[in-house]
Amino acid sequence: MKANLLVVYLVLLIAISLNFFDAKFIPAKLVNYLEFAAVMGSVLVAIVYMFDRKGGFVLPVQLISLSIIFSMVMAYISWGQGFRDSLLETSQYILWPLFFLLLHLKVPIRTLEKIILAYGVLYVILYFFQYANAHTVLFGKPISGEEFSEQRGAIRIIFPGAGIFILAIFIALTKITQAVRYRWLYLGFAALGLIVPIMQVTRQFIAGVVLIYFYHFFKSQSILKKTLILGAFAGGVLVLLNADIPMIRGVIEVQQRDAKLGKNYIRVQAGEYFLTDFSPNVLSQIFGNGAPNWGISRYGKFMERLSNTQEYFLSDVGIIAVYTMFGIFAIGGFMLMWYKSFTLPVPEQFAYVKYYLWYLLLTSFTWYSVYHYHYLIATIFALYIYHRAVMDEKKRAVIGYLLRKASATPKAADRDFSPMKKETLLKS
After folding, report:
1. Does the UniProt entry include the keyword Membrane (predicted)?
2. Which of 131, 309, 316, 356 is deepest in the core (most CB within 10 A)?
């Protein structure tokens, strides 16, 4: 019964934290109330266990969590934004302590994998349903105008909740090369992991997924196979670049246009501004400015004017937005998280957690994947699975060592101890 309640809790929390994939047919007030209650309730419970453990990814998550909490104080000090406004706005970014609650509850990794894969499939179904009904906005919002329109050679729908989909396709990718049942199903889902990003014609999405896929199939091959894979990959890229596919052509044209702009590219200018000129004092340069309540507080109205007049958006500058809102200690948490993703070994069946964290790193400079609620719960799940897998592996190693030592002890006793000492040693 307890296990079933835990599954129900996690399934509902994912849906609520993703704002039901930003569904437009659900009243916004209801979604906001549910999101605030579910997220803040989970955080308040999780904080109790925040300092119970050490090692693994505990310190990075602690740094990020405390930085986000303290940023609400900085929003008040530097911008005069009230704590009510800060709490309402920050609730969408503050779920990080859920990591500690998952550790306390000892959620089985296998259970979490099933939930993630189920949501990944749901993401695909809803995306294609929205694509087939592009004239009616059911989920998310158009980039411009009142309905989804053709951009970059395709009807461009940036479907909300991509984090759970990305983690799901990396799970499928990992299982393809494992001795598991239903390999063809995983292969089909991994193929969708390439098709959906291309259909959404988002450069970061496409590049991040393609590079991780390439690495997965490339890493464990012989020199000959690596050469063949590299040649096939290069050949495939050349074919795609020269093929008259509207979506591919649209992405290439946008990339060429932005490359020509150089320092005049709007995201470069926005990044420089938020790094050097935005924070009003030294304290905010260290601890961040907090999350602005868009269009409501004085701070939020300033951000709204900034976007309207300069077209500077925090969502366009990725990890710089984390620094701007939550300060250098949050950046330190992310740097430590990525460092550990390269240095902490994990069993091969859980390689997908590394892939997900590397995907965040690859997209962290020009996309909101590092902090946005569309990705946050998937990031927490990836860190929890990674941490549990590493800790479980260490426990197995210690237990194995103790068993070997215990099995060797009687032989040593026979050789080196008297019968009385031998009996005492065996009892110990």
Report:
1. yes
2. 356
Q: What is the spatial distance between Cα 14 and Cα 368, in angstroms, rounded to a whole number?
A: 18
As a whole number, mean pLDDT of residues 138-155 equals 80
- What is the identity of the amino acid at 321? A
Can you tell me which residue has the tokens 């420089």?
272
Tokens 């396709």 found at: 169
pLDDT at 297: 94
CB 335 within 8 A of CB 341: no
Averaged pLDDT for residues 310-333: 95
- At residue 47, does pLDDT exceed 60? yes
Could you tell me the pTM of the whole model?
Answer: 0.90
